[in-house]
Amino acid sequence: MSNNQTSIEDIKIIKLIEDKVKAILKHDRDITLDEDLRKLGLDSMKSFEMVVQLEDEYDIEFSGDENLLERFSTIQKIKDSVDSKIKKY
């Protein structure tokens, strides 16, 4: 699969992440993949809430030394982080 093709599984992950982000940040509108979530109100507490939800959803674990606020600054970065954890298990 080439980089510009998105699988159905990728779409499902992106949609789930977007829904979680919108709920945590209390936003109604669509959020683009590369939109800076920190400008929409993402802070360390909200990124931690996101981590807990994603760890539960995908049975993965993020280590405490990972810079989660930076790694979770866009939906695309969150998806990439989740993908890297899923592939390790």
Properties at a glance:
single chain; 89 residues; mainly alpha; globular
Account of the protein in words:
The protein has 89 residues and is mostly helical. Helix 1 packs antiparallel against helix 2 and helix 1 crosses helix 4.
Summarize this, please?
The protein is mainly alpha-helical and 89 residues long. It contains four helices and no strands.
- Please tell me what the overall shape is: globular
Terminal CA distance reads: 21 Å
The rounded Rg comes to: 12 Å
Low-confidence spans: none
Percent of residues in beta strands? under 5%
Total helices: the number is 4
Quaternary state, please? single chain
User: What's the helical proportion of residues?
Assistant: 55-70%
Task: Spell the H/E element sequence.
Answer: HHHH
The total of beta strands comes to 0
Mean pLDDT over the residues: 88
Q: What summary fits the major beta sheet? A: none
Structural class: mainly alpha
